[in-house]
């Protein structure tokens, strides 16, 4: 963790901005009600939050980003700092009174989530020296910070990326400064736009690359030329899917890591790398266990080959 005086002299290679959660993921066949009690099959406690998990995924793949995120001075906040220190992630905190929690119940490839969030920020967002920064990734949390850094990075020709998991107060304005916008089906539903119309909307906002993630159906997206196609998910058998929560976040962190490692290759290659990372995640319980290494991604590609001819739109 860094204080304000340190920030002024500190450069970053990549910057992620989000909201910190501690995720408690539980595998159970049923939730007790009333005075019932039950014993879960397994559980995991990990870091959580969209851009936060993406930052950890990027770090696990060898490129450690800086992270601007909420942080409380409580035992869960200190637990999170220990987690970040393990991956050498510099945390630039924005103080809140209480840590945020997610309780996640994976079930048959889906997941139910109950959240308790404190996003009442007690101080302004930290101002960082972004000299040397090559990528910014946002999830829309900390709306003021997200818009500030998106404008700043766009003005310096630094890649800007958005995880559009849901409609937020700043979504429309923020998209005007985003190069790579990958959004969820939930945003399509909230904006009453089918995926094809969502892609048109992202193009109209000036996003150079845009896409909609559709879970096990993969990604429908447009490339640098505006060509629309489908990138299917790797065919992981349903019996091997343990926890789909966080797969999208790992996907985002992986494509940022791929871009930073190989900025010259087409975006299809970055997304192919990222889908293998997501395939690894869904086979593990909790976010930390689901962070792949480069070797893990190579094994996913070998183990789950995509059928030939499976890259076009249906």
Description:
The protein has 314 residues and is of the alpha/beta class. The chain has one domain (4-303): UDP-N-acetylmuramoyl-L-alanine:D-glutamate ligase. Helix content is 32%, strand content 24%. The protein contains 10 helices and 13 strands. A hairpin with a 2-residue loop joins strand 6 and strand 7 (110-116). Helix 9 crosses helix 10 (294-303).
Could you give a short description of this structure?
It contains ten helices and 13 strands.
List the helices and strands and how they pair.
Layout: H1 4-7, E1 14-18, E2 21-27, E3 42-48, H2 50-60, E4 66-72, H3 75-86, E5 91-96, E6 100-107, E7 110-116, E8 135-138, H4 143-155, E9 159-164, H5 171-175, E10 180-184, H6 185-190, H7 195-204, E11 209-213, E12 219-222, E13 228-231, H8 247-261, H9 267-281, H10 294-303
Parallel strand pairs: 1-4, 1-8, 2-6, 4-5, 8-9, 9-10, 10-11
Antiparallel strand pairs: 2-3, 6-7, 11-12, 12-13
Q: How many beta strands in the DSSP annotation? A: 13
Task: Sum up the overall morphology in one term.
Answer: globular
How many helices? The count is 10
User: Could you name the CATH homologous superfamily?
Assistant: Ribokinase
Arrangement of strands in the largest sheet: 5-4-1-8-9-10-11-12-13
The CATH architecture comes to 3-Layer(aba) Sandwich
The CATH topology is given as UDP-N-acetylmuramoyl-L-alanine:D-glutamate ligase
Distance between the termini: 48 Å
SSE class: alpha/beta
- What's the CATH class, please? Alpha Beta
Average predicted confidence as pLDDT: 92
Beta-strand residue percentage? 15-25%
Binned, the helix content reads 25-40%
Number of domains: 1
Rg, alpha carbons: 19 Å
- N-to-C series of helices and strands: HEEEHEHEEEEHEHEHHEEEHHH
* Poorly predicted runs of 5 or more residues: 1-10, 309-314
Query: Largest sheet, described in full?
Result: 9 strands, mixed
């Amino acid at each position: 963790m860094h204080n304000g005086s340190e920030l002024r002299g500190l450069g970053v290679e990549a910057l992620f901005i989000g909201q910190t959660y501690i995720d408690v993921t539980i595998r159970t066949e049923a939730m007790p009600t009333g005075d019932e009690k039950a014993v879960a099959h397994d559980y995991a406690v990990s870091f959580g939050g969209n851009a936060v998990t993406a930052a950890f995924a990027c770090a696990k793949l060898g490129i450690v980003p800086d992270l601007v995120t909420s942080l409380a001075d409580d035992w869960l906040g200190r637990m999170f700092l220990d987690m970040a220190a393990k991956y050498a992630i510099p945390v630039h905190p924005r103080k809140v009174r209480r840590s945020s929690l997610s309780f996640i119940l994976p079930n048959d490839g889906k997941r139910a989530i109950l959240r308790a969030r404190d996003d009442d920020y007690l101080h302004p967002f930290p101002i960082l020296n972004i000299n040397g920064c090559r990528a910014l990734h946002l999830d829309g949390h900390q709306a003021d910070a997200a818009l500030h850094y998106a404008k700043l990075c766009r003005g310096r020709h630094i890649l800007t990326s958005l995880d559009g998991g849901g409609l937020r107060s700043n979504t429309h304005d923020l998209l005007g400064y985003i190069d790579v916008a990958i959004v969820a089906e939930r945003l399509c539903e909230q904006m009453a736009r089918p995926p094809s119309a969502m892609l048109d909307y992202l193009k109209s906002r000036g996003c150079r690359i845009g896409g909609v993630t559709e879970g096990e159906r993969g990604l429908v997206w447009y490339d640098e030329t505006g060509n629309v196609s489908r990138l299917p998910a790797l065919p992981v058998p349903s019996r091997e899917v343990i926890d789909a929560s966080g797969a999208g976040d790992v996907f985002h962190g992986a494509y940022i890591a791929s871009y930073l490692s190989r900025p010259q290759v087409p975006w299809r290659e970055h997304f192919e790398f990222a889908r293998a990372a997501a395939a690894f995640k869904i086979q593990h319980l909790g976010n930390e266990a689901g962070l792949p290494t480069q070797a893990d991604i190579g094994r996913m590609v070998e183990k789950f080959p995509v059928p030939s001819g499976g890259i076009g739109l249906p």
